[in-house]
Amino acid sequence: MPSSTPIELFVGLGNPGPEYEQTRHNAGFWFIDNLAHRLNIRMAVERGFNAEFGRGKVNGRDVFLVKPLTYMNRSGQSVSAVMRFYKLTAAQLLVIHDELDLLPGTVKMKKGGGNGGHNGLKDIQAHLNTPDYWRLRLGIGHPRTLALQQEVVDFVLHRPSREHLTQIEGVIDRALDVMPDAMAGEVDRAVMKLHSAA
């Protein structure tokens, strides 16, 4: 028996459009692209959800992949639309996002908590009326921590250095490796594996 509610809805946060594609703020989109590739799920624009959307089966369970096309600060519109349509709960949701408070090459997964000023998380929480969903936090670093003179908004909307990109891609791969456990309802095991590999 699963030890917790299986995660079925995977939402990567980012901004649509080629000008944002390679920016730090789109790390959540990068994760979803890689997960879709691993699961052989085709992503397509679904206007009803205002998102790129994909659906598949993993070990007999539904899996839904979402990249909101609303821009970051309105991510909750897409998320709530998908959840209403498929009657999903917050416990079945994993939101993947860039995290200023973690260095590149660091990844953490947790349920609930604050939004750390992240506009995408703020909007999702406002639409769901709860913070009790899973988050996968992909470290991108903070300009102050990295001794950069950039403002935060400028920092997240620029490309990472080659070294930092390699580190971010590395933790995306690590996180992808534990997703089968999360999908099977062994979310605590997935978290333990992810954190012990650090």
UniProtKB/TrEMBL annotation:
Lineage: Bacteria, Pseudomonadati, Pseudomonadota, Betaproteobacteria, Burkholderiales
Subcellular location: Cytoplasm
Site entry: Discriminates between blocked and unblocked aminoacyl-tRNA: 15
Alphabetical list of NCBIfam families matching this protein: pth
Residue sites binding tRNA per the record: 20, 71, 73, 119
Gene3D superfamilies: Peptidyl-tRNA hydrolase
Keyword Cell cycle appears in the UniProt entry: no
Keywords assigned: Cytoplasm, Hydrolase, RNA-binding, tRNA-binding
Stated name of the protein: Peptidyl-tRNA hydrolase
Transmembrane parts of this sequence: none
Role description: Catalyzes the release of premature peptidyl moieties from peptidyl-tRNA molecules trapped in stalled 50S ribosomal subunits, and thus maintains levels of free tRNAs and 50S ribosomes. Hydrolyzes ribosome-free peptidyl-tRNAs (with 1 or more amino acids incorporated), which drop off the ribosome during protein synthesis, or as a result of ribosome stalling.
Pfam families associated with the record: Pept_tRNA_hydro
The EC number(s) this enzyme carries: 3.1.1.29
Stated family: Belongs to the PTH family.
Quaternary structure (record): Monomer.
Primary localization class, coarse: cytoplasm
Catalytic activity: an N-acyl-L-alpha-aminoacyl-tRNA + H2O = an N-acyl-L-amino acid + a tRNA + H(+)
Enzyme class per UniProt: hydrolase
HAMAP family: Pept_tRNA_hydro_bact (MF_00083)
Site (Stabilizes the basic form of H active site to accept a proton): 98
Active-site residue numbers: 25 (proton acceptor)
Gene Ontology molecular function: peptidyl-tRNA hydrolase activity
Database matches in PROSITE patterns: PEPT_TRNA_HYDROL_1, PEPT_TRNA_HYDROL_2
